[in-house]
Amino acid sequence: MLFPALAESVFRRPELLGLIYSAETIGALVATALSGWTARVHHHGRAIVVAAASFGLCVGLAGLMPNIWLVVVFLALSGAADMVSGVFRGTVWSQTIPEGMRGRLAGIEMLSYSLGPLGGQVRAGVTADLWTVRGAVSSGGFACVGGVALTALWLHDFWSYDARTDVHALTERAVRSADEPS
Predict the structure, then answer these.
(1) Is the pLDDT of residue 6 over 90?
(2) Which of 68, 76, 79 is closest to 4 using CA atoms?
(3) Is 27 exposed, middle or buried (0-12, 13-18, 19+ CB in 10 A)?
(4) CATH code for the part of the protein at 3-175
């Protein structure tokens, strides 16, 4: 994690390291508390793409900020965007994945949650060594935006996912309705 280097080497404020570490969690907590609006969104694919790109943009901008307080603000915004993305990812998961496949897919998802951040840490460390700490933070965030954009283009049907009309969501809803006792 580059946060210790950001706090100590870039801003010379090591006493604020805990605040940097907790900023994303605080943003996620605020987003959770204000998440009632998500029930009115039906285009979950678009919401995931926008939220994931917003996460990357906020991380990228955090690396460019001239003072540590703005870094904390942008990291909090990234945490909020990540939480919004998570809400909609969980909703799509629940609406479309048949119950019999959830265990296997959860295992694959767990791998991505454990391996992805480790790979990101390696990338960030190498980039910081070859370039700068700020460059490593910003390039990671902006690379995320690019990756989200490319993925959205590649999986163009995902962009148009609508819980009210998606064939997988409708099929899963029908199966669950048939399984409910009358």
Answers:
(1) yes
(2) 68
(3) buried
(4) 1.20.1250
How many Å apart are CA 42 and CA 170, to the nearest integer? 13
Q: Is the dihedral of CA 161, 41, 30, 67 positive or negative?
A: positive
Nearest-angstrom CA–CA distance, 56 and 151: 14
What token pair was written down for 143?
Answer: 């690379």
Q: Is the model more confident about 100 or about 37?
A: 37
Residue 30, C-beta contacts closer than 8 angstroms, at least 6 positions apart: 76, 80
Amino acid residing at 173: R
Spell out the residues 6+ positions from residue 64 whose beta carbon is closer than 8 angstroms to its own: 134, 138
Distance in angstroms (rounded) separating the CA atoms of residues 146 and 163: 26
**What mean pLDDT value characterizes the chain?**
92
**Separation in Å, CA 45 to CA 8, 74, 161:** 39, 24, 5
Mean pLDDT of 152-163: 91
Residue pair 101/88 in contact (Cβ under 8 Å)? The answer is no
Which residues have a Cβ under 8 Å from the Cβ of 43 and sit 6 or more positions away?
160, 161, 162
Q: pTM for the full model?
A: 0.90
Token pair, residue 118, equals: 């480790």
At residue 182 the predicted structure's pLDDT band, cuts being 50, 70 and 90, is low
Distance CA 165, CA 177 (A): 16
